[in-house]
Amino acid sequence: MVVMRTERCAGEGKTVMTTHVTDRPDPARTDAGIAKASTWNVGTPQRQREAVDAIRKVWGSREWPHPGLLSYSVHAGEDGATLLHYSQWTGEQAYQDFVREGRDTRNAEIDAAVPGIERLGLHTYELYRSGLRAEGDTRETGCVVIVDVEFDGPDAARQRDWVDSVFEALGQEEGLPEGGIAAHFHVGTDGTRVLNYAEWESAEHHIAALAAPGEGVGSPSPLWERVQKYPGMTGGGVHRYTPALSMEPGGGA
């Protein structure tokens, strides 16, 4: 880990949390009550890099904003234009505290460095099920694949049933795709969407899995057909990202 900043406020004895750069977030951590996912459109690969550098600089020049923020990660879209932001929180109140106390100031400094960022949306999720790494698996995540699924109205039971259907279909596979590391299925707190945060060794492995027989990852079967044609599904998409920056709080100073 790399310590980005640490200090003690003179005269107050205030403990300040440091910011550590980490290899990747752990979507399966049990202390995260919610996860937030949003997308920024910055337009070009160069501006992707500039925006990531600006985020690193802005966050590294300040104390960690809130003890309820457990991790904050940024991934660069394969499209050369977008950035995926994935953050984990103890709960919604922690996020609202951050919004009230400092989000806009940080964003304004990032916007000054990279003008014209288009913020496309923010959704709140709870982790429901994970297909975890095998014990002792030390492979690095070279590609994050985000699978979004949208439904025609709020229905928490339907969200979970769809995810359970994916696991049922996976359970019938003779072998999982080469290069797949883990999959973390999140359900939207509004009841209308599911997000799968899938870790792969590389984009090439995911592309090869999609090229295999069937629609998407998974062999042709009635179970996968149920997943793909689930009643009430209205949209979604699959997008590949390269991990660019991941941070979490360190110890107090």
Give a written overview of the molecule.
The protein has 253 residues and is an alpha+beta fold. The protein is built from five helices and twelve strands. The longest helix is centred in the middle third of the chain and has 22 residues.
Order of helices and strands: EEEEEHEEHEEHEEHHE
Discrete helix count: 5
Low-confidence stretches: 1-11
How would you classify the quaternary structure? single chain
Q: Major sheet, described briefly?
A: 8 strands, antiparallel, barrel
Helical proportion, percent range: 25-40%
Q: Average the pLDDT over all residues and give the rounded result.
A: 90
Outline:
The protein is 28% helix and 39% strand. With 253 residues, it is α+β, with helices and mostly antiparallel strands. The longest helix is centred in the middle third of the chain and has 22 residues, at 92-113.
